[in-house]
Amino acid sequence: MSSKESRKRSNRRSHKKPKCSTSTSSITDEGSNGSSSTDDYKHYRFRKGEYIKDYKVRRHISDGTFGRVLKVRRKSSKSYAMKIVRSNHAESAQQEADILFYLKKKDLNRYFVEIIDSFYHRGYYCMVFERLGPSLYDMLRMNQDRGIPMNLVRCISRQLLKCIGYLHDIRLTHTDLKPENILFSRIRELKKGQNDLYLPADHKIKIIDLGGAEFDDEDHNCIINTRQYRAPEVQLQCCKWDYKSDVWGIACIIFELYTGHLLFQTRKNEYEHMALVEKITEQNFPYWMASNVKGSLKYCFNTKNVTNGKYYQWPQGTTTKDSILKVQNQKTLREMILDPLLRDLLQKMLEIDPNKRISCFQALDHKFFCN
Question: Among the options 176, 202, 209, 353, which is catalytic?
């Protein structure tokens, strides 16, 4: 699969249990000036100029699965983004709002999107956010799958690890880290700069989409994350995942910033995905993971008749030739990352065994960030 094909939106769907999320479009300032869309069913029907609580509707920004987003302005104040949630997602939206207000109370809104207000209006749950700039995904898309300068890779990676490290300190795991959910904090367009790349004027980032975030002591969903950023312990369901799953996702994002394309270029094929994990990282699944696999992947692991410590039996009889060739031709991380310090950092963040994987703050102590 080419890197161009890998960036199609259909490839990046989340397989996690649906929860309300603050998608990129919910807090950026892109969209139409219209007052409706082709998908108005169950969306709030608004009028330009009307007041929702004390917020005046300026224009329509976008519509999503969970709700409609409007640009609003409070009297004698600045503009905000208001998400009006569909009625069948109100409970999940309230859970996300609770998390965002909790982070704000902890003074972590410096690193995560700031929620301004939440309330019910005519039976619809409304969430008001600060407006942010374009996402990392927007930047990668505009640069047509070309990596960004190393100094910017380092700057964004440092911030990302710091932001999520603080989240982990309060025993909260994000569960859906990907370029779409990392936004530049300033409402400015990306402009052409070094090597004709579209780059931000201000490098500061903020994290969005806390709709799936879970505390350590909560019951965990079996499957989290979009597949391309999903840690192997989550896919195998071999243990109760924890904050280390976020670290894996961050490593995938850092790789993507450096190269311009996805690390794991796979779609719905979980068997191929796990084969790519072993090939790219040059590791085998450890015995404890192989012997505790649940779900359909369980039948691909053999812990009895083992050669060379390889428990994952792939390809299977039903594996397609295209899939076999794809894995065979896949380059390793060592071959794709030429910078020795960045390669060593990613190798430590992409340990298949979550018990050996470094934390966010351990990653920040790596020599890659000493420059």
Answer: 176
